[in-house]
Amino acid sequence: MKRQLKSFACAFRGIWDAICDEAHLRFHLVAAFYVLLLAPLFGLSRTQYAVLILLIGAVLAAELVNTAIEDVSDALTRQQNAYIRLAKDIAAGAVLILAIAAVAVAVLFFARWEAILGVLRFFMNHIVLAVLLVLSAVPAVWFVWHGPRKRRK
Questions:
Q1: pLDDT confidence of 149, banded at 50, 70, 90?
Q2: Same structural domain for residues 61 and 106?
Q3: Is there a domain that residue 32 lies in?
Q4: 62-94 as b/e: b if 16+ CB within 10 A
Q5: Are residues 106 and 67 in the same domain?
Q6: What is the CA radius of gyration of the chain?
C-alpha cells in the first residue's frame, strides 16, 4: 500500500511540475474550468458530460505526455537535432489535433441558439454572476501567462 501511495505522490508531483512550467497546460486547465462551469447552463445530457470529461482528460493527458517528451529530449541534448525536433513537433501536433477535436465537439454541444439565448437571459437576470464571470478572466489570464512558477530544470 505504501508503494501505491508513493506512486500517486510522484504522479501528482509530475502534474504540479507541468502546471508550474507549461503555459499550454495552464491554458487547457482554464478552458476546462470554464467549459465545466458553464455546461450546466446548456442542459447537456449525461452522455454529453461524459464526452466532455473524457475529452478534457485526453487533452490534459496529451499535454502531459508532450511535456514529458520535451523534457526527456532536452535532457538528452540542448544542441540542434533533427530527430528530437521532429519528435517534439509530432508530440505537439498530437495535442493540437486532440484540442481541435475537443473544440469541434464543444461547438456541437454548445452552439445552439436557443441554449445561447437561455444563457444570456440567465446572466441578464443574475448580473452579479455575470460580473463575477467577467472578472474571473483576470486571474485566469494571469494563471495562464504567469501561473505558479517552479523551475525544475
A1: confident
A2: yes
A3: no
A4: bbbebbebbbebeeeeeeeeeebeeebeebbee
A5: yes
A6: 19
Active site residue 63: yes
Domains in the chain: how many in total? Answer: 2
User: Which residue's entry shows cell 464571470?
Assistant: 133
For residue 56, pLDDT over 80 is answered with: yes
| pLDDT (tens digit per residue) in 29-40 | 999 999 999 999
List of residues 6+ apart from 110 with CB closer than 8 A: 38, 42, 116
Domain region containing 139:
112-147
Catalytic residue selected from 22, 63, 70, 114? 63
Q: How confident is the model at residue 4 (pLDDT cuts 50, 70, 90)?
A: confident
Same domain? For 79 and 136 the reply is: no
